[in-house]
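Colleagues,

For the teaching module next term, I've prepared a clean inverse folding example: a structure given as tokens, and then the sequence designed for it. I'd like students to try predicting residues themselves before seeing the answer, so please don't circulate the second half yet.
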């Protein structure tokens, strides 16, 4: 069986320039937001990850000249010494801080062969258009610049190594515009590299948390390259792996535009067939799996699914997003396929329950539902069963930065 991980010779900023280079992930900003964020910042990685900002307004972000511009911008930052490449394969300890939450993981080269063999496990479908975009981007740059977020069952050996590394001076410690802290340590000690490799490669599996399109596109690029040696750079993909007991999943909530010709009282009455319903004096933030908050007609209600509606053996059907879909959204509000139905929208938990109230009170939406965050054990159970989670099941925070470590393929 293929190994799971190996060290990479990372491409990264000069230490004094890390704050100027680091940027939000390419897929959390639209072009207008990226253009504004990068204005007056020639070293921002957005010039590489969103290169249409350097072309005339209205340029198709999937046009060939966009990928070419990204490659030119990457070459410029490498040529002027803004980005430097380590002279040996390394691991990198990466710590994220958001408020009181801290999670510490490892930047790794994740094995494409292990991904293809389903030892790096998936839980989402991918869309061909998004895969094609990432394939073109990787090919144009000859580099992977957006890390995949992985998780693994916590390892005491890795925890010990991380504690040893983080007791030494860091390489970067920056705070992004959104207040998220990013701290990085370079691990170039051969003994520690061997311990990290052994710890990861003794695991049964790694799990993709976020980045299914990036990992799928890396597999396609590797297949096209047909590099036989497992050590070839193209045969691994850039990832940051965090232990499951530190990786944070936030709630991913739902808002619906109308009540499917029901009155508020009729909806409340029909919800009671599958849920225990209690009036809440304030926002009903779910406290456990199987609990939901519902904001309707200016009032909050706490809904608890009845036990007989929770299938024990099906890891997908027992997810809270599935329980809400199967017992309320589909039968009562006629939301058939949440992937395509334009009557439903999704609100990341980072926005808080106040955003649900705002969307309903404005008249834009008729009802909102707050969910308990999907638990990491549930995500792993779905992946272990080779199943796929429903859309918008997980919202991961804090986000990794682009530009702190990239992986060059030659």
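(Answer key — instructors only)
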């Amino acid at each position: 069986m293929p190994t799971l991980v190996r060290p990479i010779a990372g491409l990264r900023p000069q230490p004094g320039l890390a704050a100027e280079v680091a940027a939000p992930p390419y897929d959390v900003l639209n072009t207008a937001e990226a253009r504004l964020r990068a204005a007056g910042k020639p070293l921002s990685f957005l010039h590489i990850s969103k290169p249409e900002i350097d072309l005339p307004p209205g340029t198709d972000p999937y046009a060939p000249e966009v990928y070419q511009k990204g490659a030119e911008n990457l070459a410029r930052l490498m040529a002027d010494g803004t980005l430097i490449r380590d002279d040996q394969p390394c691991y990198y300890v990466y710590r994220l801080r958001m408020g009181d939450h801290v999670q510490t993981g490892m930047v790794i080269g994740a094995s494409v062969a292990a991904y293809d063999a389903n030892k790096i496990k998936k839980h989402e479908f991918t869309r061909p258009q998004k895969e094609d975009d990432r394939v073109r981007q990787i090919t144009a740059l000859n580099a992977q610049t957006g890390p995949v977020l992985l998780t693994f069952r916590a390892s005491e050996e890795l925890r010990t190594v991380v504690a040893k590394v983080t007791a030494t001076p860091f390489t970067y410690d920056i705070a992004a515009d959104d207040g998220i802290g990013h701290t990085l340590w370079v691990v170039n000690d051969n003994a520690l590299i061997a311990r990290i490799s052994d710890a990861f490669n003794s695991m049964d599996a790694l799990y993709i948390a976020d980045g299914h399109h990036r990992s799928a596109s890396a597999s396609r690029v590797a297949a096209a390259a047909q590099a036989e040696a497992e050590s070839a750079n193209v045969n691994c993909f850039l990832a940051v792996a965090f232990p499951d007991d530190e990786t944070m999943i936030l709630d991913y909530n739902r808002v619906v535009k109308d009540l499917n010709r029901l009155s508020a009282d009729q909806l409340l009455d029909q919800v009671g067939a599958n849920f225990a319903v209690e009036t809440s004096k304030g926002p009903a933030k779910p406290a456990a799996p199987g609990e939901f908050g519902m904001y309707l007609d200016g009032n909050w209600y706490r809904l608890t699914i009845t036990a007989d509606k929770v299938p024990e053996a099906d890891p997908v059907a027992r997810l809270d997003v599935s329980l809400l879909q199967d017992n309320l959204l589909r039968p009562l509000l006629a939301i058939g396929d949440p992937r395509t139905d334009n009557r439903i929208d999704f609100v990341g938990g980072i926005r808080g329950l106040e955003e649900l109230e705002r969307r309903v009170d404005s008249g834009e939406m008729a009802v909102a539902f707050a969910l308990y965050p999907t638990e990491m054990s549930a995500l792993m159970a779905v992946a272990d069963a080779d199943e796929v989670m429903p859309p918008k099941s997980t919202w991961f925070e804090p986000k990794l930065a682009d530009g702190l470590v990239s992986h060059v393929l030659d």
